[in-house]
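Listing S7. Sequence submitted for prediction.
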Amino acid sequence: MAPAVSPPPPDTVHLRAAGTGLVLDLSGGTLPRVLHWGADLGPLDPRAAADLRLARSPQPIGYSVDGPVEVAVLPEQSAGWLGTPGLAGNRGGTAFSPAFRVTAVDTDVPADPAAPDGGAGGRVAVRAEDPDAGLALDIEVEMCPAGLVRVRARVTNLGTTPFTVDALQPTLPVPPEAVELLDFTGRHLRERSPQRTAFTHGLRVRENRTGRTGFDSAFLLAAGTAGFGARSGEVWAVHTAWSGNSRTFAERTYHAVSLLGGGELLLSGEVELGPGDAYASPWLYAAHGTGLDRVSARFHTHLRARPHHPARPRPVVANTWEAVYFDHDLDRLRALADAAAAVGAERFVLDDGWFGGRRDDRRALGDWYVSDEAWPDGLAPLTDHVTALGMEFGLWVEPEMVNEDSELARAHPEWIMAPAPGRLPGRARSQQVLDLADPGAFAHLLDRLDALLTAHPIAYLKWDHNRDLVEAGHRRTGRAGVHGQTLAAYRLMDELRRRHPGLEIESCSSGGGRVDLEVLQRTDRVWTSDCIDALERRQIQRWTSALIPLELMAAHVGAPTAHTTDRRHELDFRAGTALFGHFGIEWDLTRATPAERDRLAAWVALYKELRGLLHTGTAVHADHPDPAYRVHGVVAADGAEAVYAIAAVATSANYPTGPVRLPGLDPDAVYHVVPQPPADTCDGNAARWGVPLPWWTPQGVRLPGRVLATAGLQAPVLFPERLVLLRARRTTG
């Protein structure tokens, strides 16, 4: 019997889902090219796909080589491309420009009876080799059911000598209509600040070399039509899912090629592949849609569909840091727990200061033993008290760091990352970095954290990471070690979760310095910022939620005067801002007045009532023309209800304020819109002058969703740094 012959790979693969389409050209035996990424083109038969390939073929004029220059998902100079290479590396100075040929294609495009209406996504895996360079390449392109695209590559050394990888960076093309770029900068206490630039010829690169996701990272790099907003304009966006050094870029050439790409930023000599070794790039996630809200919805829907996504209601968190700092007194903490439980908290987190000789931030980091000095009877008196109140217990840790003034550093100085024997990097926050890639250091940390989790009823770890990785080298090898450190941190989290099912971890890093989709594969929320000033948080939370859904984003109510800005806010503004996230409290409630505690309890009750909506619905933002007012909300997936916030962040040039639009509602349904308690009264919110707003009553108004989104309704005049809430419910009357 003759052996079975595999069918030839298809010339094109069309992936479709949720209104997005991706057409891959696999013809000619070279690496896959993207013929189209954007709005769904509808079903394409083989003839139409072939004609699309022909119609999109450029006229070869002015290229560096004769004939067409094909720009693949992993661009190659061997194909004539002289922009940023997809793979950069060498074998002792040779094999610097591979020319890969496809040897196998595996497609998984599920049949879907509803394909004419949008398809069900799918996956394409391509294997290619260059025998002369001694390399193999695997590329995966996947479209998720939410319409989110993700791409990654893996290079394998088939040779007998080492191959050094300098970069492995997948890309996706965008059309010439994308003329504007949005990315983010930031710093401690001011994370994810948006910045826009024109998408012109050349290369815009956002590099992060801090050894963590970083404050000044692209976070999300979006290209769009001129003036694109939350609800308008066509937008293409990418995110590099990696928690170490990264590189995200937008490139446009005068040959009318425009690309968005990203990958790990590898330090010199950091990844050297021995024979048979492989290196995989991080996932590059990509989303397309009309307006940034649609792009964000694709990310949110994808994350919520993960098997390990938090499923139970997100508990109200009370954290001790800004309440007591390092003053760990049992009676004081019991009183704080009592006050937290009385307002409705469901999780009590003991922050820094519980271990070793840790009485300030200059010593004992790494000594993960309960302090005999601060806790002579251990943690049980507090954990028993907390759990008896019906709250879960959580604990702060910072496993990847160490103080030089610590028992651990004195016992194992060889576990500290360093560029060379005998020379440590400069201190930051009196800290150095433990080399988690060192087997001894890894085993020690795993043992200590496992012992803590076994000995105490700890449901949650606030996992901090408080310094950049400067001159981060592995002492055993002398090589740069950010890549290995990042992978080891992932392994440590993964193993702890395997040993302790149900354990939740928060990604904290000097606030919001480690927020990315790869760390969220093993954590349950992110600490959005150390700044919980409600005015600053309005921007920080808005742009953090451009990538991740509200239930993964920590948002706490702070003290009346913010510890990081010395700015004072009314409780309703603080709590109304924290409502749109994973709600928590960062305030010494033992010093709050009875009236403040009662008002906070009302907000906690509202959060518990709304968290099912807030954490499953679609986040929406109005493109409001008045910069003094921000309008945003969450609409239920079935359109049955919504909650909106109208916040004044400054004084307006308009007096009274003009109407605001409520986006995202079912245009054909009628909604009953009313002010939402406790942010429903004008006392302390609206200006004291003038007559009441006519519709602002418990009776509210009844209007179609189309009218509310197009004509809008009059907003109340607010003092600066105040907010009100609206509730919209679909009605038949």
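Caption to Listing S7: primary sequence and predicted structure tokens for the chain studied. Residues 317-571+579-616 form a domain with the TIM Barrel fold (CATH 3.20.20.70). The longest strand covers residues 722-731.
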